Amino acid sequence: MGIFSFFSKEKKETLDKGLSKTKENVFSKITRAIAGKSKVDDEVLDNLEEVLITSDVGVDTTLKIISRIEDRVARDKYVTTGELTAILREEIASLLTENHTEDLESFTVPEDKKPYVIMVVGVNGVGKTTTIGKLAYQFKKAGKNVYLGAADTFRAAAVEQLVIWSERVGVPIVKQKMGSDPASVAFDTLSSAKANGADVVIIDTAGRLHNKINLMNELTKIKNVMKKVVPDAPHEVLLVLDGSTGQNAFEQAKQFTAATEVNALAVTKLDGTAKGGVVIGISDHFRIPVKYIGLGEGIEDLQVFNRKEFVNSLFGE
After folding, report:
1. Using one digit for the tens of pLDDT, what is the confidence trace for 154-193?
2. Is the peptide bond before 115 cis (omega within 30 degrees of 0)?
3. In 3-state terms, what secondary structure has residue 204?
4. Which residues contact 164 (CB under 8 A, 6 or more apart)?
5. Fewest Cβ atoms nearer than 10 Å: which of 9, 86, 138, 294?
6. pLDDT of 92-133, one tens digit each?
């Protein structure tokens, strides 16, 4: 209960602030959509459909939400426009639940998997390395022994940035010279982490490869090499997406989910955009749980994703 109440109070302020641009954008559009209307009718639903689509929720997900609201209106016979945001909150939270997005309360990993191996994927520029650094910080703060692996060996800046984060957080990092085999780095990282009793291992991977076949081959090779050290690794393939790119994030998700078995999402840069609705659409479309959201530059500004808090923050309490 203590963790949850801490989240609800202090983390909620960061969440509200981080989503303020999206909330302002969505609310202003909803206000216009229901102007002069006392009850939810076909015109209001048509306007709401446009609001959700232009807020980067996505067409398919928007149609699901509208259909659910239509069912509510048909069942309840009379729904006022004042009740609309409450219904939106309920239906979107329900949709996220169906997509296996659970309400996380803290940065935790299963106790029966040691080390717990996270392979992080995503294109350059989405905040991948920063997310890894912030994750390492949160896991260390939770008392975990964390190791980092710099397997993005194609880009000097990626390795340098990860080294800076390892020093800042105070966790060991395994790296090799530029151009080394990424799978070799992953193997060395897991071997070292296992020998030293690490709880969590986070492996960075290259964000730019020539095509989907190259991407698939590279990630598959890294995973196969990991299994030689930790048979069920990686336990988590975390795809990092830049929320501020809106629909482009959908395309990135499509590419990476086709190339490897992504089972968790982190959506970053939500504080600088009015496109926070993309979190709902991506979760629904790919049916992959959102685990983390990035709400600012600060080391504490990566949060575990809590669907109820997110939806309440986005559509008002």
Report:
1. 888 889 999 999 999 999 999 999 889 999 999 999 999 9
2. yes
3. strand
4. 133
5. 9
6. 888 888 876 666 667 888 889 999 999 999 998 899 999 999
196: CB partners within 8 A, 6+ apart = 145, 147, 172
Separation of alpha carbons 47 and 57, rounded Å: 14
Rounded distance between C-alpha atoms, residue 200 and residue 274, angstroms: 34
Instruction: Give the confidence band of 317 by pLDDT, cuts at 50, 70, 90.
Output: low
Distance CA 231, CA 199 (A): 15
Decide: residue 231, CB within 10 A, 0-12 exposed, 13-18 middle, 19+ buried. exposed
Instruction: Annotate 73-120 with DSSP letters as a single string.
Output: HHHHS--BGGGHHHHHHHHHHHHHHHTT-----S----TTSSSEEEEE
Banded model confidence at residue 65, pLDDT cuts 50, 70, 90: very high
Helix (H) or strand (E) run with residue 303 in it: strand 302-304
Q: What is the pTM of this model?
A: 0.90
Rounded to an integer, what distance in angstroms lies between the CA atom of residue 164 and that of residue 6? 29
Whole-number Å distance between alpha carbons of 16 and 280 = 16
pLDDT value of position 207:
80
Sheet of 116-121: strand order equals 173-174, 146-150, 200-204, 116-121, 236-242, 264-268, 290-294, 302-304
* 252, amino acid identity: Q
